[in-house]
Specification:
Elements lengths: L7 H94 L1
Length: 102
């Protein structure tokens, strides 16, 4: 409204100022959008890393469970084998005793 008395040149000047302000606002908005996109990328990366870590932890847990199961199976087999060996030794001793008695 300052330029109304100047006629068309005043209107042109006001239009120029508005154009300049719009350009500055556009630049500002673009900058903000870029920042938001970068933050989103960072968030996505954080989520990916978290998901990867959770996945890794689950795999590690599964492997440790498998290892524990395998260990207990081996221990059972060893115990069974020892039991058998003890029985054999006991039978051998009993046979020897019987032979000595005769």
């Amino acid at each position: 409204k300052q330029h109304e008395h100047l006629g068309s040149s005043g209107i042109n000047a006001e239009y120029g100022e508005l154009k300049l302000e719009l350009g500055l606002l556009q630049d500002l908005l673009l900058g903000l959008l870029l920042e938001l996109e970068l933050e989103q990328v960072e968030l996505n990366m954080e989520e990916r890393i978290e998901a990867w870590l959770v996945n890794l932890m689950m795999k590690t847990l599964q492997k440790s469970i498998k290892i524990r199961k395998a260990k207990t199976q081996v221990q059972r087999k060893v115990e069974i084998r020892r039991k058998r060996e003890r029985k054999r030794e006991k039978k051998k001793r009993e046979r020897r005793k019987k032979k000595k008695k005769k």
